[in-house]
Design goal:
By secondary structure, this protein is of the alpha+beta class. The protein has 2 helices and 10 strands, in the order αββββββββββα.
Length: about 240
Amino acid sequence: MSLRVTPRFSRPTTLRTRAAVMAAGLGASVALGAGVAAAVDTTAASNASTVASAVQAQAEAQAKAAKTAKAAKVAKAQAAANAKKATTAKKAAVTKKAASWVDPVKGYTLTASFAQNGGMWAHKHSGQDFAVPVGTNVVAAHGGTVVKAGPNGAGDGPAYGNAIVIKHGNGTYSQYAHLSRVDVRVGQVVATGQHIAKSGNTGNSSGPHLHFEIRTTPNYGSAIDPVAFLRSKGVTV
């Protein structure tokens, strides 16, 4: 009877086989881990970049909004300041226009004065003469209403030539005489400094000039010193 002999692998061969399998498995694990780690790193970097971009965009938007709000606030404050300045200037202009007095003509020379004696007048001179060329612009010395206008001294007599009388709000009247042209009518409201006539040499006149009076009534005989009056109102005469 013969004996069957079962061959046996040597122990070193088995160990080498196992080691090879384990190495292969470890290599695969390492490779898989590296791939996963690389994927994780790429995703994290992408997410970080997206977050950074969003933060930057938000910061820029907030900065722009803040700048816009500041500009709007500055513009609003400037507009309010301009409006207040305009209102103040308008009120000042209205007040000045209503309260101020001005010279009736410009570029003049003072000649015959108030209460001066002379052969030119039946009585003492009733006003102040402003020597100016014929056609010089004559303006209202103060705002008011025209109560007389026309030839024959506007009713005060031919000595005055063409004349105008204006009633003022304070109960004072101003008169302008020897005019070459009258450019207002009775009942017309005029402002301080508004054109009313052209100077001339009409009536009892020795040369081109404006005869100017300040009166307490619209009629001849109620005149007061016009130069002293204008100076009391701040006019340099």
